[in-house]
Design goal:
This protein is of the alpha/beta class. The radius of gyration is 19 Å and the shape is globular. The structure holds S-adenosylmethionine. The site of S-adenosylmethionine has 22 residues, from helix 2 and strand 2.
């Protein structure tokens, strides 16, 4: 162990390991390897020879994961890829069938905290791409989409009641070149009520659109049944209701899986205090029949 400050605290870690029950000789996939926190625990639990295939679209995340997982040598294979290509990558790596898979959707603390990425209200850019090879940025949406399209986006992906008002003020005051100026304009326009920043929902909408986050979840879920072998499990962590609804409905209607979590697992009060990012996390687990 070294003394570096951990950049990202994995959410529901013990619950994920318990759910996947990794074993020696097993092959596992982490489709959102991030800083490698879950992956590290998975590999430890799968000692001495269980293996992990880790994917992430973010080059910086993968660099950190490589360092975290270095002690495992060839037991960890890391590949920069969108998880929408999970089945293809798994096939290329001879990882089908595997014994379990984890998807921990959303952003890592490093992405959120880095002002250059444009995810936080203080950011000096308006980017929000998880993968910098992608073309669409938040700035393009904010500065070029027409008012009706922006209102629909903020309403549907942000579940924001004030979507029309926010879309109008964006169109009146653009161009915006930083998340900070956008967040301030929204705050001035709609006022501050309650604890959450008034731009929270609009920011969520932009992020989901820039990264095609909901479409990506829809794309990866059906691939899991072709990748995970019988008796293998999947653990899926979502961070807001739009994501969770997709996962929940998928397992409800799909005959390939036995749903092991009628109610999703959520962090305890203590876990949320130690890791505020975990606040809205929901873990669903299913077993391949
Ligand atoms: C919440 S973090 C995962 C943290 C990780 N479980 C850990 O313990 O460090 C989510 C990660 O998924 C990645 N990600 C999100 N959507 C992705 C996608 N469609 N394809 C590949 N990676 C994605 C993000 O770049 C981010 O690093």
């Amino acid at each position: 162990m070294d003394n570096r400050v951990k950049p990202h605290v994995p959410v529901l870690l013990a619950e994920v390991i318990h759910a996947l029950a990794p074993k020696g000789g097993g092959k596992y996939i982490d489709g959102t390897v991030g800083a490698g926190g879950h992956a590290e625990a998975l590999l430890n639990a799968a000692a001495p020879d269980g293996k992990l295939l880790g994917l992430d679209g973010d080059a910086e995340a993968l660099r950190i994961a490589r360092e975290t997982l270095r002690p495992f040598g060839e037991r960890a294979i890391l590949i920069r890829s969108n998880f929408t290509r999970l089945e293809m990558v798994a096939a290329e790596q001879h990882w089908i069938p595997c014994d379990g898979a984890l998807l921990d959707f959303g952003l890592s603390s490093m992405q959120l905290a880095n002002p250059a990425r444009g995810f936080s209200f203080q950011s000096e850019t308006l980017d929000m791409r998880m993968d910098d090879r992608a073309e669409l940025t938040a700035a393009e949406i904010v500065n070029t989409w027409d008012e009706a399209a922006l209102a629909d986006l903020i309403y549907l992906y942000g579940e924001e009641r004030l979507a029309r008002k926010i879309a109008r003020l964006i169109c009146e005051q653009r161009p915006f070149h930083s998340a900070q100026s956008l967040a301030n304009a929204i705050e001035r326009g709609v006022g501050r009520r309650g604890k959450i920043h008034p731009a929270t929902r609009a920011f969520q909408a932009l992020r989901l659109a820039v990264n095609h986050e909901l479409e990506n979840i829809e794309t990866v879920l059906p691939q899991l049944e072709r990748v995970v072998g019988p008796g293998g499990r999947v653990a899926l962590i979502t961070f807001h209701s739009l994501e969770d609804r997709i996962v929940k409905n998928f397992f409800k209607t799909n005959a390939a899986w036995r749903n092991l979590t009628k109610h999703p697992l959520q962090p305890t009060y203590q876990q949320t205090r130690e890791n505020p990012r975990a606040r809205s996390a929901k873990l669903r687990v299913a077993e391949r029949l």
